[in-house]
Write a structure and sequence with these properties.
52% of the residues lie in helices and 16% in strands. A hairpin with a 2-residue loop joins strand 4 and strand 5. The termini are far apart. It has 7 helices and 5 strands; from the N terminus they run H-E-H-E-H-E-H-E-E-H-H-H. It has 2 domains: 126 residues, Alpha-Beta Plaits (2-Layer Sandwich), CATH 3.30.70; 40 residues, no CATH class.
Length: 173
């Protein structure tokens, strides 16, 4: 690679890092060509962009990104590294777990999810169980609607009177 090609590569990678709030770093070394192709197909099917990166160029790209602290992720930049960009925080972790049922790798090196940094393969289970923003909003809305539904059902069951509502609430307690 020439200096100009490296500079363009680092600039493109820095742009991707600054625009993405979710990315995983994984070790995909020692996987066969067939296994890597299967992993790429699964990534594509899950709307994950995966690419193999050079550690030194990724570190330079991280240095160019302003407003994001990648913390300890620089420390895991050794050996073969693939970067996975995703829209949903837990999808790459679930994909890695599923893929490792038949393969020894990829090994999770680290992840950056909405300003939180996770380092090490031991974080994979926690990342796989993270809830997406939509799932969290659904749970919050469900929790907020629950008391209102109880009051409305109490009013309907008791004929809509205040005395009936109080009687219903007394019976539930």
């Amino acid at each position: 690679m020439t200096q100009e090609e490296k500079a363009k590569y680092v600039g493109d990678l820095a742009t991707e890092l600054s625009e993405s709030n979710i990315f995983y770093l994984a070790d995909t070394g020692e996987l066969t060509v067939d296994a890597v192709n299967q992993l790429r197909r699964k990534c594509f099917g899950s709307k994950i962009r995966m690419r193999v990166v050079k550690n030194t160029l990724l570190a330079k790209a991280m240095d160019q990104v302003e407003g994001k602290d990648f913390g300890q992720l620089r420390e895991v930049l050794a050996g073969p590294t693939s970067i996975m960009f995703a829209e949903v925080g837990n999808v790459p972790a679930k994909l890695i777990k599923e893929f490792r049922k038949k393969n020894a790798k990829p090994i999770l090196k680290g992840a950056y999810i909405d300003e939180a940094v996770y380092v090490g393969d031991n974080q994979l289970e926690a990342l796989a169980t993270l809830k997406s923003k939509e799932e969290m909003l659904g749970e919050i809305i469900g929790l907020l609607q629950s008391p209102a539904k109880n009051v409305i059902s109490g009013l309907k069951n008791s004929g809509g009177t205040i005395a009936g509502l109080l009687k219903t609430l007394e019976n539930r307690a």
